[in-house]
Amino acid sequence: MLHGDIITSFQAAITGEHPIMKLKAFRIGVALAAVVLTGSVGFAQRAVATAKPTNCPAEGFNGGFSRGCPQKQFANPADISAMMAALPDKPYATPQSLRHVLVLCRAVGWVHTSIPLAAKMVEYLGDKTGAWMTAITYDAATITPENLKQYDAIFLDSTTGEFLDDPNDKAGTDLRRQALLDFVKGGKGLAGIHAATDSYHSNGPTLTGTWPEFNEMIGGFFKFHWTYPTLIPVKVDDPNSPLTAMLPARGFEIVDETYTFAQDSFSRKRVHVLTSINYAKMSAEDKAKEPAATRRTDGDYALSYTQRVGNGRVFYEAHGHDEKVYFLRPFVAHMLAGIQYALGDLKADDSPSAK
Q: CB–CB of 127/26 below 8 Å?
């Protein structure tokens, strides 16, 4: 089956409609124009730019990632248009107050080209549904106790590596780390997508988390991914949750780069699993691609989940590598519901899946 066919069958299974992209006008303004992102380019971008390798992809490169190259900060107009066509018309819950979401896009390790599009998805979801207002930044210096007072949730947009750290400022690094932990534990929300879990961990033969408090808060840390384009069968673990109401209860298939977590970093005893890889339906060929030395012994590969951290709420979705994923109406709706959960507006069972 071709990738386009998969997208079509996935959307048609849920909406009953052929996913012809129709651009709807709403108060976002001119969507195809270049969008100015909030927040200055601070130490985060300077550190990456100084070490620019000679093989960086051309400007406008899509559908992958790079390492050490200047971080792309603008989504392609055609991708924005296709993503806009997938936006839901209304929120899943009425906001309890005027909500504000901060999208943090700093990637220190691998830099995904889909980061700007994911940021625009969050912004346009809030604009169209009225569920929140959005600020977008590529500068980790915005993560301070004082600045975070104005926000109700933070969205980690494929942040990789030590995304809050400044190697030349330990005090500032410690301040930002503590500010993020206190923000969530104090009753606010955190949502993350794809490479948000590829942060604060070792890459050697022994897989360990390097910031345990964050590793536990985000739900786990990366160890392996099935590369794009791999067809992944998805199981809906909690079909009764409002966060999965837009997904077919029988499950579905999706093509993307699919993240997995180190054995001891993820546990259903901590998180409430919404969707996971239907491992029994994976081909033997695809299963064999996972390195035997670090293969999960339980066959448990969560894709999206929620959890309570202190008085706050966390939502994570493992897909979101390729731009085409953001053209899928059910996926975008799942993100809307997840962010509304993190904000505290959409109530859902978030008790651990395993007792």
A: yes
Write the pLDDT tens digit of every residue in 13-71: 444 443 323 333 333 343 333 333 333 334 433 333 445 676 787 665 666 667 878 88
Domain boundary assignment for the chain? 3-49+67-343
Whether residue 91 is preceded by a cis peptide bond, meaning omega within 30 degrees of 0, is: no
Q: Which residue, 111, 114, 41, is CA-closest to 82?
A: 114
Tell me how far apart the terminal alpha carbons of the chain are, to the nearest angstrom.
Answer: 39
pTM, 2 dp: 0.84
CATH class (in words) of the domain with range 3-49+67-343? alpha beta
pLDDT of the residue at 340: 99
Helix residue ranges, H only, 131-290: 145-148, 170-185, 212-218, 284-287
Q: Look at residues 153, 221, 211, 142 and name the one whose alpha carbon lies nearest to residue 176.
A: 142
DSSP string, 172-196: HHHHHHHHHHHHHHTT-EEEEEGGG
What residue has token string 């400022």? 169
